Amino acid sequence: MNSLLQEIFTKSYLGLKSQGFTRSLGVLPKTQETVCVFHDKSCEGTIRHCAIGWLDIDEELSEFTLIQDTPKKISWIKNRLNDELPNKVAVLLNRLQEAHDQGNTPRLMEIRLNTIAKNYGFDIPSL
User: Which of 25, 39, 87, 125 could form a disulfide with 10 if both were Cys (CB 3.0 to 4.6 A apart)?
Assistant: First the structure.
């Protein structure tokens, strides 16, 4: 197991766990469509994040501020981390993001994340 991959998983897992394995959602202004977003600030004083949004890189992403920028943020993060460990990081980030985006219930998101941990041989972190 690679320590960078475990670190990415741990940050994402603990972040999603801290928000009760609930999705980070926003509404696109033009279409009023509800979509998964990088940061959801609409939660009564708390901020939820998507799976990748829990990685510590906010300062470098300050130019992407709109909900529509979420795909650009995710692409930027994947490219940056891929420089350190090509392909393996991108695959893990995709799987984490899918666990978030397709985790329609907290239990389903947790199950998906635990499956990722099992497949990669990761330790399941605790708070």
Answer: 125
Name residues whose C-beta falls within 8 Å of residue 77's C-beta, 6 or more positions apart in sequence. Answer: 52, 55, 57, 61, 93
pTM: predicted TM-score of the whole model, two decimal places = 0.74
Helix extents (H) in 19-105: 70-82, 88-101
Domain boundaries, the chain: 3-119
pLDDT for 71 beyond 50: yes
The fraction of the chain above a pLDDT of 90, given in percent, is: 30
Q: Tokens in use for 5?
A: 């991959």
What is the per-residue pLDDT for 81?
60
| φ, ψ of residue 39 in degrees (nearest 5) | -135, 130
Closest CA to 22 of 36, 7, 34: 36
